Amino acid sequence: MVTLYEFYLWVHITCAVIWVGADFTIQVFAFRLLRENDPARIAGFAKDVEWMGLRAITPSSILLVIFGFLLVHQGHWSYDFWLIFGIAVWALSAIVGAGFLGPESGRIGKLIDEHGPDHPEAQARIRRILAFSRVELVLLLAVIFDMTVKPFL
């Protein structure tokens, strides 16, 4: 029989896999595409990343934090460093995502539609947004380490 805690943990981990896996995959493809330097493919990829962010990354990150709080409650966890760090990175990601990455993706899409995929500003903005995403991925990997090892417990 699966306990409620185990179910919450399964959803939480599954959401982390989806979120971090999507971010990792985006970075692998971005690295490959940026080396090819094909503006049309890079622009199409940027639009695909926006689509993926809205339909997979954002929902999984929201469910992840909801089920994380349910785990804390169900498991009677205290708010030690490993939990605070995870919450802080999630909050930072949400703020950067909602305040910059999401809106910037929309602006890049419009810029591409108006001026074409090889427009220098569009390409520069795509590279900048991918750099932000790369930093987020490093932070998410640090959270996985933190949640798994709990080094300051």
Summarize the topology:
Blueprint: H1 4-36, H2 39-75, H3 81-115, H4 120-149
Helix pairs in contact: 1-2, 1-4, 2-3, 3-4
Key structural traits:
elongated; 153 residues; mainly alpha; 4 helices
Task: Describe the structure in brief.
This protein has 153 residues and is mainly α. The protein has helices spanning 4-36, 39-75, 81-115, 120-149. Helix 1 (4-36) packs antiparallel against helix 4, helix 2 (39-75) runs antiparallel to helix 3 and helix 3 (81-115) runs antiparallel to helix 4.
* Radius of gyration computed on alpha carbons: 18 Å
The global form is elongated
List the uncertain runs: none
Q: How would a crystallographer describe the biggest sheet? A: none
How many discrete structural domains? 1
Structural class: mainly alpha
Strand coverage percent: under 5%
- The N- and C-terminal alpha carbons lie at a distance of 30 Å
Give the number of helices: 4
Give the beta-strand count.
0
Topology as H/E string? Answer: HHHH
The residue-averaged pLDDT reads 94
Q: In which range does the helix fraction lie?
A: over 70%
Describe the structure.
There is one protein chain. With 153 residues, this protein is mostly helical. The chain has one domain (4-149). The protein is built from 4 helices and no strands. Helix 1 (4-36) packs antiparallel against helix 2, helix 1 runs antiparallel to helix 4 (120-149) and helix 3 runs antiparallel to helix 4. The radius of gyration is 18 Å and the shape is elongated. 23% of the residues are buried. The model has no long low-confidence stretch (mean pLDDT 94).
